[in-house]
Design goal:
The protein has about 110 residues and is an all-beta fold. The protein is built from no helices and ten strands.
Length: about 110
């Protein structure tokens, strides 16, 4: 059974850091392109970062240089390191396969001034 469980969110001040984790069961993340997406209150989903089979990574322009996507294939966990957080990064964050809609419960990141 496929399961993706996000964790690591929280409330931080602007400029702070968090590391999000996505523990995956049911498939090997090493075999798929994976992504992190977010949804701010009242807004559409937007893709924040993606990582591909050759470890190529891509990022939303607004987070380039601040966020880093990575994965631990042995543990089957996808990560998103969030640095220099801004108020506009406040959102629910989800992981998913590239091409899939999020199916987990997400993890909330709240950034305050």
């Amino acid at each position: 059974q496929v399961q993706l469980v996000e964790s690591g969110g929280g409330s931080v001040q602007a400029g702070g850091s968090l590391r999000l984790s996505c523990a995956v069961q049911g498939f090997a993340i090493s075999s798929y392109a994976m992504k992190w997406v977010r949804q701010a209150p009242g807004k559409e989903f937007e893709r924040v970062a993606g990582i591909y089979s050759n470890d190529y990574t891509e990022y939303l322009d607004a987070v380039k240089g601040r966020f880093t996507i990575s994965r631990d294939n042995a543990k089957n966990i996808l990560y998103l390191q969030l640095n220099s957080l801004k108020i506009e990064d406040t959102a629910m964050y989800y992981c998913a396969k590239v091409g899939d809609a999020p199916r987990g419960q997400g993890t909330m990141v709240t950034v305050s001034s």
